[in-house]
Amino acid sequence: MGTSKKTLFFASVLFLYCASSSAEDISFKITKRYLNFPISHQTDRHQMTFETESEPDLTVNIRLAPEKADYWVFKDVSHLKGETVKISYNGDKTGLKNIYQSDEFAGQDSLYNEKNRPQFHFTSRRGWINDPNGLVYHDGEYHLFYQHNPYEREWENMHWGHAVSKDLIHWHELPDALCPDKLGTIFSGSAVIDDENTSGFGSNGIKPMVVAFTYARSDRQAQGIAYSLDGGRSFTKYEKNPVIDSKFLWNSNDTRDPRLFRYEPNDEWVLVLNERDGHSIYTSDNLKDWVYRSHITGFWECPELFELAVDDNPNNKKWVMYGASGTYMIGQFDGRIFTPESGKHCYATGSIYAAQTFNNQPEGRRIQIGWGRISHAGMPFNGMYLLPTELKLITTKDGIRLTSAPIKETEQLFHPLKSWSNLTSDEANKLMKEYYDADCLRVKTTIKLSHATDAGFNLFGQRIIGYDMNNTTLNGRFYSPQDPTSMELSADIYIDRTSIEVFIDGGLYSYSMERRPDSNNKEGFHFWGNNITVKDLEVFSVDSIW
Ligand code: FRU
Question: Is the shortest distance between the CB of 214 and ligand 1 below 6 Å?
Answer without folding.
Answer: yes
